Amino acid sequence: MGSGAVCGVGKDRTARGGAPWEGDYADFVRSRTASLRGTAYVLCGDWHRAEDLLQTALLKLYLVWPRLVRHGELDGYVRKMLVRAFLKENRRKWRGREQSFAELPDTVATWDSDHSQRLAVRTALADVPPKQRAVLVLRYWNDLSVAETAAALGCSPGTVKSQAARGLATLRQSLSPELHACGQGGSTA
Fold first, then answer.
1. How far is CA 119 from CA 56, 123, 167, 175, in A?
2. Is the pLDDT of residue 74 over 70?
3. What CATH code is assigned to 112-183?
4. Where are the domains of the chain?
C-alpha cells in the first residue's frame, strides 16, 4: 500500500466500506509506532521479535478500538498489551536465548566507551527476569510513574517498587565488572 495506510485500514479501507473509526485508528498507529517499537525492542532485545510484539498489541487494540476510544485509555492499553505479549512469549518453553543481528560487520570495529556501555547494559538487561525487565523498561525507558507502571502491568505499586529494586540490583551485579573496566565503577578503597 503506497498510500501509507496501516494494515489495510485508514482512508482506503473506509472508502471501500470499512468502519468510520478506522482512519482514527490508523492515525493513532502512525503516531505511536516508533515509540512502541522502541519499547518492544528494549523489552526483548531483538528487532524482529519487537515487530511481532508490536503487531500483536496493535491487533488487540484494533479489536477493542471503538469501545476503548470512548474511555481515552489508548496509550495505557496498548502498552499493557505489548508487555503482556512479551511476558507470554517468555513463558514459552521453545523460545531460545539467541540474539540475532540484522547485519554482521565485515571487520571488527573499534568501539568507543559509549557503545561498549550501551552493549553492556543491553546484555545485562537480557539477564534480568522478564517481569522485572518489564518494570524497568516501563519505569525508566518509558518514564512512567510507579502508579502508571502498576496499571500497565496489572499489579500493585508495591510490586512495581520491589520488582524495580530487584531488577536494578540484578543490573548492578551484572554490570559491576563492565563498569570497573570502563572506569565507571565506584571506589574500591
1. 27, 6, 18, 11
2. yes
3. 1.10.10.10
4. 7-92, 112-183
